[in-house]
Structures are given as structure tokens and as C-alpha cells.
Amino acid sequence: MRRAWILVVSVAAATCRPTTVNPVEASLRVSPRAIDLGRTWTQTTVRTALTVTNDSRAGVEIAVAVTGAVFSAPSALSLAPGDNELLVSATSGEPGPFEGQLSLLLGEQVVTSVPLSVEFREPPDCGQASECATLRFDRATSQCLIEPRADGLACGGADRCLRDGRCMNGECLGQPVACDDGDQCTIDVCETVRGCVALPRQCPAPSPCLVGVCVPDAGCAGAPVPDGTRCGDLGSVSCTSVQICLNGQCVERDPPDGYLCAPASPCRGPGRCEDDACVLPLPAPLEVRWSLGEPPQDGGVGDQWSDVFLDDDGGVVLSSYFGTAPMVQAPTGQRLPAPSRRCISWNDLVVCADTPPQGVTASSARNGLPAWVYSQVLVDLPALALPDWETFLARLVGLGPTRLGVLFESRRIEERRETNCRRFSFVVLDQNGQRVVARIIDDPIFLVCNHPHSYGVAADPQGNIFFAFTPSANVSPALPDPNAAGTVIVSYSPAGVRRWRHFVPNMPGGEIATGRGLITVEAGRSIYDAARGVAIDDFSIPFGEGLIAQDWVVAGPKGLQVELRQPGLDAGVQLVSQAREGSRSGLRGAGWSGAQVALRLVAEQGNAALEAFPLSRFLSGRVQPLWRCEIPDGGSPVSFEIKPDGLVLMTDTLPGGAGLCENCDPPWALTRSRFLEVKVPGLIPPEMPWPGPWGGPHHDHRED
Q: Model's pTM, two decimal places?
């Protein structure tokens, strides 16, 4: 049986004065000359106004004729002199584009005609929000509204860290699984997929002359370091007085000639005491193994890579922002099939975002061969398939070896890139690129147009996710202070359930670093508890591209000032650089001679220098670098990564940093950089649970 059309008729006139019919002398004009009622949903009514101008001095009676079954208008209209309004409506129970015509008649004579058009679409299936909530499409607002399921329903069957889960106010709540193996030398945590996992406990050193050891029955304790180990101020060089460890105690002694007064560095041998003076051999510059990316000599375009990272085996990967296709195993490896927006290293794969057809593509980090593609977010989240909206990938983040997080962003096609009206959704993929979780981020702060960018994202070893959205304008009633602008930090579980939300007023956006149960935000000055989202300590400077080390949280913004803090302690430590021109490269953590160090690249008259600072937990005051090595023709470094016995650095090819696009995302997008691999004997990349800053494995954020 054919479905009947529903016709709506309405009319409004500019005046109710008596009219006189005079078809001979009437002069009528209409505006606009064509009516397009746009795109809308089936089972809804859309209206627009047509202005009919009567240029006569007397009123006129006209007839209105409409063709096209979905359109309607009044059949007759009394026109007073001047402008009159005629409402045209359209309603349909079936989808499709429709056309028609509206005609104005004086008697049987057609005075003028106006073409009509409209398109009706079926509303999307919103899919499933979660075990404890449903999604209902609201035609009036063109949004999928979340409606909690009944409280008390069983849930959480796939979550191995939740027991007796029940729905409550749209979220799955229950008893957390307690993980305790009785071993005081392990940290017992629960992962949603694997359940209870025991991580090895790292015991801190109780003093400079004791190392931390762990006894399964007693926990952490201290054991003496070898006699003669340096203690005290490791940055000072003296051959008249030295502090060394004897029987686990730090004592002062007069060193003999030949005493090792300065350790060896990658570019210089050790210093030894001679007649109360520390004699150091001459340094040699670090060796450059290869370089790539110089502008072509003939002035052509050439390769346009603007980012560098390492795969899990230390292979170098070069990528760009929709420029040159990424290359694995640089400098002579294979190129991936297509350019991308951003890439990360994950397991033995290089995963790239926004590759044709706007999907997530994984390729082998060894030979560049395709592994899998995910491009069905609009199938998994049909609520995003709205008219005039586009969805693209915003961020990638590894949630562990078996889960990959993908943050999507949606906005209206006609809106500028700077629009504040955005939707965010989150998909979790397994190691084969198959969807595990797909859900719209339904935080109330996104119900208003106040979040232009999902600037930062990170994940901890348990797969909990942290987002920073900024700037949050003063239009959100969900924020603690609706009159302040700032950054909202939100944490979600691996299943996409919100854990907490924290608002930082007056703070600009920034990337997120996580480690040791802590998080920091690039532009902020606070250290946050990752479990609760509360600030537990503050820096005197912005965090910048710093790092979270085993004993310290290190702030290192652009420039030369670097500050170390141990959360909860009043005193901070400053690292004093020997450079004069500054630094744009941020910090990286590494291992050197059995200890942890912080590395920074600085520029020196067209060359680069690598400085290493100690990260001993017993530092105090102002600390000088352990060593400093020159990199010939290193240029102006903007980023670098640590690999065994070396590092790979990216430099600006233009003097003074003119090639850096400060307002791009990332800042090196659409620029051409130069890449060098430098030999640094003895250097060791950091290992978990000391992940260092953003930009390491499983993390795509490399902006500074």
C-alpha cells in the first residue's frame, strides 16, 4: 500500500484591511525567485517564507497553486499593498529529493511561478552507546541523545576488572577486582582485557651509597654500593677533596694522582687527577652516520618529511603532514603507499591516520607492507553519519600491546577549521585492526560549542586514556566556572567509561605526558594524580616538552631553563645549561653508564650540542651537565629520539628557525626538515615504567 503524503498549510498576511479585487491593474513581485528548503529528516516539517510584493494601491485577491506532493501552501491569499508573507511547507514520510512549483494566479492568469526543491533523508541508526545506555535520534536537534537503561541491569561481563557489575545512571558500576599475589616485590594491577597483572616493583635507593633492592617477604630495602663509588655533588670536579662511598656511607677523602675525577663521555675519555688538578683529554665531535632531507640543489621540491620517530626495534621512521609518503627503516628503507596526517609506532607496525580512504592504516615497520586498514567508523558509529557533517581522525594512542585507541573528530562541512562546534568519538582496535569498542564521548561539556580542538591524548600501562580539550570557552554550564576559559582534562577507562574530569582555568592547550601514576600537560605548571585528576604539586615554570622520569618530573620548556621536582617535596632542582643560544628540542630520557640522564639538544653558532644531565634522586640546588658533545653541521635542532648507541635528530634547514610553522599542528607540518643519525656510544633508550615524554612508542604527540 502506498504511503500518503502529509500536507501542512499555513498563511500570514501583512494586514487585515478589506481588499478589492482588481486583476487588471495589479502589479506583483516575489522574492526569492527560487525556494530550496534544504535537507531535512523524514517525518519532519520544514518551512520557509516567500515575500509577495503588491505594488498596487489597492488590495488584491490571488490564488495559489502548488505542484509536488510534498509541498504545501495556502490556496488563496489576500494581498495588501506592499510586502506580504506566504509560508511554504514540505513534509514527507519517505526519503529522496523532490521538486515542485508554486504559482500565483489572478483569475486564471498565472502572474508568476517559483520553483521548489527539498531533500528528505532517513535519520541514522545511532547504534549502541554502552551496556547501560541507549542512543535515540532526535529529529529536532539532529543529535543522538543518550538515554540510561534501567538501574540494576547486569553489565560488565567483558571487563575482567569488574565484579557484579550493575547499571547505575547510565554507567556500569560494580566491585573492582582485587589483585594481590602476596609478593611485595610486585605491583598488582588489573587490566580490562587480561585481568590481574603483576608488574615488577622498582625500589628506590635509600641514599647515594645504598641501592634499592626488594625482598619478596619484606619489600624494599637498601644494599651498599661498591666502595669508592662517587657520592655527593656529582657535577663538581675536584682533585683535592672527593666524596666516596665506604661501607654504605658517603665520606670525604683526598684523592690520589690518577684518580678518576671526571667520567668518560661519548666524545671524550675520562679525566684523571694530576697534582691536585683534573686533567681532561681533548673532546672529539660526535660522528654523523647519515643525513637525509637536504633541499635539492636544483631548487626542486624533493622529499618533504616533517617528523621522525623510532619503531619498537629502533628503526627510523620519517613521516609528514600529507606531504611525502612515510619511509620505514630510513635512510634507505621502503615507503608506505600514501601520505598521511600522522603516524605512530605500535608493536611491529607503523600505524598512520587519515590515509585514503580517510582511515587508519597499519604497515610493517620492517618492509612497509600493508597489514590492515580500519575505515568504518561511520558504520560502527552511525550517529556520526549526519547530513553536512564530516568525520576525520584526530589522534592515535597505544593502550598496550593488544589495544589501539583512535580518537575521531566531527564538524559541519561548512564550518571553518577554527569552529568550536565539534563532536568527539572513540574507537578501540585490536592488533588486527578489528573494532573492540566504539562510542561517542558524551561528556556534557560537548553539548555546547566551546571546544575547538582535542589537543592532547595519552594512555597509561593499564590502558586508561587521558584527553586535553582546549580552549574551553565561557559558555559551558557543565564547567565549575562558566565564566572562565581554560583547558578540560578528561580520563576514560579502556572501555570508554569516564573516570574523572578536571578543569584548569586560564591554561592554554598542550600535550599530555603520563608515567608513574602521574600526568602533566605541556602548557600547565601542575603535576596531577592520574587516578583522581587532582593536582599534587606545582612547577615555577610551564611544563613544556619535559619528561616523567623514575625519580623526577622534569619541566623543560623552550629556552634553557629546566626544573626538576619530586612530587610532594618542597625543594626543586635547576639544571644549568652551558649553551647561550637556547633550545627548541625539548628533553629526552636515556640511560648512561648505568644511570638515568636527561638529554637536551642546544644550538651553538650553526652547530648542535648534546648535553646530558644527571637524574639521581639525591640532586639538589643547581646542577651542571655531566658532559657536553658537539654535533658537526647539526644546524638548529627541533626534535630528537634516542636509540641504542645513538640518536636521530631533526633540524630546521633555515637559519634562525624560519622553517618552523609555529601555528601548524604539528608545528613542523608543511615544512621540510633535515634528519641526521648520530653515533653516541653507550647511550640506552629508557624502558617502562619510565616512558619519558610524548613522542615515544605508542604515542603520536610530538608537538612542542
A: 0.72
